[in-house]
Amino acid sequence: MNLIELKNFKKFENINVDLNEKGLTLVSGVNNSGKTSLLHALAVWEYAKILLVNYRGKESLFEEYNVEKKGLGIPSESFSPISIPSLKYLWKDQKTNGSYQLKIKVGWKGSENRNLYLEIAYTLNGNNFAIKKSDSNLTELDVIPTIAYLPPFGG
């Protein structure tokens, strides 16, 4: 991976994180600086990607897929890539009631050194939760990375 973009995710209104394309990237910072949120975003992106592929097919992630189609509705209690008390904790500026939207975009190098990306949008309106591909330049020939999430620990 070489790019992570977050919009309205947890404490981040809009952030772009450029990662080292080769080798290892280390993330460090003081408490409450967003290190764990960055890892959570990757876990949430991966989980949503898997759900979209399983329910709508891999083509739902491709550039040519019609993004005007409704998102994939998910029961909020079934969306559990990370441990949080409520889905509202994924969004910046939580309110008691309201509509929430966020986006997570991940970029990586593909074959022939092509910059590839997949952005997934998340919407929560009351108890209605949906996900969908909001932007992508993927084709059926592109390999999409798999992200393994290991919860962070202190000590």
Structural account:
This protein is α+β, with helices and mostly antiparallel strands and 155 residues long. It has one domain. The chain is 14% helix and 31% strand. The chain is built from 1 helix and 6 strands. It has a 6-stranded antiparallel β-sheet with strand order 2-1-4-5-6-3, covered by helices on one side. The radius of gyration is 15 Å and the shape is globular. The two termini are 27 Å apart.
Give the structure's gist in a few sentences:
The protein is of the alpha+beta class. It has one helix at 35-56; strands at residues 3-9, 12-18, 72-74, 99-109, 115-125, 128-136.
Secondary-structure map with pairings?
Layout: E1 3-9, E2 12-18, H1 35-56, E3 72-74, E4 99-109, E5 115-125, E6 128-136
Largest sheet, spatial ordering of strands: 2-1-4-5-6-3
Separation of termini? 27 Å
**Strand element count:** 6
Distinct helical segment count: 1
Number of domains: 1
| Radius of gyration, whole Å | 15 Å
